[in-house]
Amino acid sequence: MKIGDHVVYVQDGTKGVIVEIHDNLYHIIWEDHFSSWEHGERLIIQEAYP
Length: 50
What we know:
Layout: E1 6-9, E2 15-22, E3 25-30, E4 35-39, E5 43-45
Antiparallel strand pairs: 1-2, 1-5, 2-3, 3-4
């Protein structure tokens, strides 16, 4: 995953965009404009989401 990728939070299907990366932590701006840092294993690239 890289900055600018559209991702989905696997636990609830929320969509967002990666804006910053530090090691395995990804800073995401979510569709409701909330932002958070998430571990990579909790995210999936949107195109791969069923």
